[in-house]
Structures are given as C-alpha cells and as structure tokens.
Specification:
404 residues; alpha/beta; eight-stranded mixed sheet; 18 strands; 27% helix; globular; binds flavin-adenine dinucleotide; binds [methylthio]acetate
C-alpha cells in the first residue's frame, strides 16, 4: 500500500477444471452462479463447477436494466417472483456484498379507460395474493414523479397507474460478483473462458460435457445459458421451446438525481429509471427477429426514445451515451422454463426472457433444491417443460412490461 500499489484480494479463484464434479453448471450468469451458491450453502454440495465461456456476468446479467419487482398476474408467477424479491431484500446480508438494492417503487402507467380497468384488475389480483400494489391518480403520479408530462394535452395522456412500492432496482454486476465470491468461498470452482461444446449422454442419462478445456465428467449437469439455451439443448438432443431475440437498453449522459424508482408504460413501450451514476436508463421492446447478436437495431432505439420523450419531454435535450443488447431466451408464454428435462441428471434454467434478473435468487435456490433432490421444487413445478404438453401455460406476456 505504501508503494501506492494496492493488492486487491482476488474475489474468487480461477482454478483449472478437474476431470469430474458432482454437478456441472453451464453458464456463469446470475442463474448459474446463484444455483451453485445455493447447492453449496443450502445442500452442502460443493464439488461443483460453473463453466462460463466468457467472463462472469458478461451475458444478460451484466447487461440488463436492473428492475426487480414481483407484480406479475398469475398466482404461480407472483408466488415465485415475490419469493425472489424477499430474497433480494436480504441478499446483501446473505452474501456480505452490497447488491445496492434500491426500492424506489415501480410505477406502471395507464393511458386510457381500458388501460386503467386492466391495471385495477392487475393491482387487485396482487392485493388478493398479499403483494403490495396501489392505484394512483394522475395527480398523485405528478406529485410523485414531476419529471413526467401529466398534462391532458400529452400525446399519451396519463389516466393514472399502479405502483409496487417494493419494486425498484439492484446493481446487476454486484449480484453476479456477490454470488460468485460466496460460491467460490464455499469451494465451488468457477471456470471462465471454458466453453461447453458438447453434452455427453448415454441411455437418457447425462454423463458429462465436452469443453475447450477438455472433457469433464458429471452425473448432474444444469444448463443456465439464457439466449443460448436452444444451442445447449440441441447438444443433448433436446428441441426446446425457446426463441432467442436481441433486447436493447440505452443510457443518457449523467445528470443530477431527478427520477426515483422505475416508470413503465407497456402501452407507450418504454421503461425508465436513473442509475446511481446519474444516467437515465431506458429499455423497451425486444427486436422483432431472432439473433445471437448482442447489438440490436436502430428502429427499436428510435421507437423507444420517441416513446420515452412522449412521457418525459424534458429529457429531449440529453445526449444518448451508450446502447447495447443482450440475447433473451423467450418462451411461448413468457414464463420461465426451469427444472428437470427428459434426460436423467440434466436440468434447465431458461425462458427468463426479458425478466430473469429479478428471478436470480429464487431461480438459483429452487434449481439447487431440484438438483440436490432430483425432485422439482414446488415453487417452480408450474414452470416445467411438461406445460407445453399439457397446455397449462402461464401467460405473463402482459406482465413482462414490454412487448416481446
Ligand atoms: C437489455 C436487457 C434488459 C433487461 N432488463 C431486465 C430487468 O430490468 N429486470 C429483469 O428482471 N430482467 C431483465 N433482463 C433479463 C435478465 O437480464 C436475464 O433474464 C437474466 O440476466 C438471465 O440470467 P442468466 O444467468 O440466465 O443468463 P446470462 O446472464 O446471460 O448468463 C448465461 C451465461 O452463459 C454463458 N454461455 C452461453 N453459452 C455457453 C457455453 N456453450 N459454455 C459456457 N457458457 C456459456 C454466457 O456467456 C453467459 O455468461 C434484461 C435483459 C436484457 C438483455
Ligand atoms: C420491464 S422489463 C424488465 C422487467 O421484467 O422488469
């Protein structure tokens, strides 16, 4: 320290992969890392490897707009996502890592009588499930978020909205790094730059994975690769009901604090918050074509910014600083696809689409339970692959916040 050279303790080891593990998790994003952490912490299973082809959090977990909430519509979803939000509320303590949870509320706007009827129905459904939700008038919204144009002359007049006060944002990198450091401390091997190239099975039982670091044997393997779910599923001979599309986000130049919480308009198609660094963080709908490119296209940027300025005309003079995209794994009913697969010992965490960051704690905890017991955790039982056979879909497209 005297020489000015500070030695930062390595947050996690970078071991070479062993020849075999009890569990191999493919994907070093939030879901893979959380699953590894809960396997070690709640089930004492530590002979685990997380294999990440790039760097930790380099996928959607490090690219998202950080919204955490549980205001879904169906009880199965609300139960799961509210459990996740409750885990988020204790996460910094659990991981001894500041995940910078900021529950400034998530406000969903209504722009017509029909919008308001649907929002009232949605808000009532949440209250019946014991989840906080409150209808707000235009005046209350104007008082709470003065940056919004609440005048009746607005292009999309705000008729009111509903807020989940416990909703908000968390620091995405910190969630990945917090779980990585805690899992590593429990003995989990986190191996970056290790790409899985094949999944070996025999008689419908998983045997191990081929990687660019060699073959690794394991009787239990979990796929947690978001936008690459179909690619990994195909390696095991599975055709999964997942479509991969780019989802973009963008930030403005930083400005003084002017927006608390998250404002979302499904009708106008944007959701806006302000990062801790002062940038206005904006998200919108997914690009309308399948792609593995983490870029996205200009039309969505134009549409999303136009929608944002209808709601926040004062932002029109800001400069856009950065735009990026991730590859989201979208399921037919916009609900997760998580749990066991038709191959013994092969598990799946996918279908998180545009909204899996808020699900990381509960997704990891429930998948870890499912792997440890080889029995589906009750919270994720409704979200198994079987629903595409039975037809018992859980359509949360409307609660996804933005079209995709
Ligand atoms: C722009 C954008 C905004 C979003 N906003 C929100 C939001 O506000 N709130 C919310 O709840 N959700 C949001 N999401 C969704 C959320 O980010 C994701 O659902 C979530 O992060 C998925 O986590 P994951 O661990 O499954 O995937 P990822 O974080 O993508 O991790 C998967 C990892 O698997 C690795 N991988 C892939 N193939 C291989 C292979 N063959 N071998 C080894 N590793 C491999 C990848 O490199 C990647 O690191 C957003 C997503 C995007 C893109
Ligand atoms: C509105 S997109 C991110 C989310 O699901 O909260």
């Amino acid at each position: 320290a005297l020489s000015g050279h500070r030695h930062w303790p390595q947050a996690w080891r970078s071991p070479a992969p062993k020849a075999s593990y009890d569990v191999v998790i493919i994907g070093g994003g939030g879901h893979g890392l959380a699953t590894a952490y809960y396997l070690a912490n709640q089930h004492g299973i530590t002979n685990v490897a997380v294999l990440e082809k790039g760097w930790l959090g380099g996928g959607n977990t490090g690219r998202n707009t950080t919204v955490v909430r549980s205001n879904y519509f169906y009880p199965q979803s609300t139960l799961f996502f509210d459990h996740s939000l409750k885990l988020y509320e204790k996460l910094a303590l659990e991981l001894n890592y500041n995940v910078m949870l900021s529950q400034g509320g998530i406000l969903t706007l209504g722009h017509s009588r029909h919008d308001m009827e649907m929002l009232e129905r949605w808000s009532n459904s949440l209250q019946l499930q014991g989840v906080d939700a409150q209808m707000l008038t235009t005046e209350q919204i104007g008082a709470r978020t003065p940056l919004l144009d609440t005048s009746p002359a607005a292009r999309y007049p705000i008729w009111g909205g509903f807020i989940q006060h416990r909703g908000g944002v968390a620091r995405h990198d910190a969630v990945a790094w917090g779980y990585a450091r805690a899992a590593d401390a429990k003995g989990v091997d986190i191996i970056q730059n290790c790409e899985v190239k094949g999944i070996r099975t025999s008689a419908k039982q998983v045997q191990g994975v081929e990687t660019n670091c060699g073959y690794i044997r394991a009787d239990k393997v979990a796929i947690a690769v978001a936008g690459h779910t179909s690619v990994l599923g195909a390696m095991a001979g599975l055709k999964l009901p997942i479509v991969s599309q780019p989802l973009q986000a963008m930030v403005s130049e930083p400005v003084k604090p002017c927006l608390d919480g998250v404002v979302l308009s499904g009708a106008v198609h944007t959701y806006v918050s302000q990062s801790d660094r002062g940038e206005i963080l904006i998200g919108g709908g997914a690009d309308r074509y399948m792609s593995y490119g983490q870029r996205g296209n200009l039309p969505i940027v134009e549409e999303t910014l136009a929608a944002t300025l209808h709601l926040f005309p004062h932002l029109s003079r800001l400069k856009l600083m950065r735009q990026w995209a991730g590859i989201v794994d979208i399921s037919p009913d916009r609900s997760p696809v998580i749990g066991k697969t038709p191959i013994a010992g092969l598990y799946l965490s996918s279908g998180w689409g545009t909204g899996g960051f808020k699900a990381i704690p509960a997704g990891g905890e429930t998948l870890a339970y499912t792997i440890a017991h080889d029995r589906c955790h009750e919270l994720i039982e409704p979200f198994g692959l079987h629903r595409f056979v039975t037809g018992a879909l859980i359509d949360e497209g409307a609660a996804a916040g933005v079209a995709h």
